[in-house]
Structure prediction request, 147 residues.
Amino acid sequence: MGDLRELYQELILDHNQNPRNFGELDDATATADGFNPLCGDRLTLYLRMIGDVVEDLKFVGTGCAISKASASIMTTVLKGKTREEAFDLFEMFQKMATTGELPNGDLGKLAVLSGVYKYPVRVKCAVLAWHTAKSALAGKNTLTKTE
Ligand code: ZN
Prediction:
């Protein structure tokens, strides 16, 4: 086990306290719900797609600092991305969160969560928003569980 303080960096604490794009999106074209039974994190993600582009997205939910910060950071990163770019980012993030490996592509702020792989329980918290986004992007309006 690493030092937990290493994981709870300032950027994560900031996104947890002041989550970006938090709230419901009235004119969403896709939504998905996510649930992480291990920790109890829940979130609902709203997307507004214009053609193949994520024009806007917001989320509501309750959960631990990591799940909330990850969802918040994700919304800032996915805005304006195409469906394909979003799926690529999902793959990169998933890999980083489970192996700690930083991909070649620019993950920007997402890299702040790269330490999460040292805490297997927390990995589910970090990837919940991403799995939920993947479902929403795929048009699957079902409950996504990180198990
Ligand atoms: Zn959690």
Observations:
- The chain has a mean pLDDT of 90.
- Residues 32 and 88 are 19 Å apart (CA to CA).
- The first helix runs from residue 4 to 7.
- Residues 36, 39, 41, 63-64, 66-67, 125 surround zinc ion (CB under 6 Å).
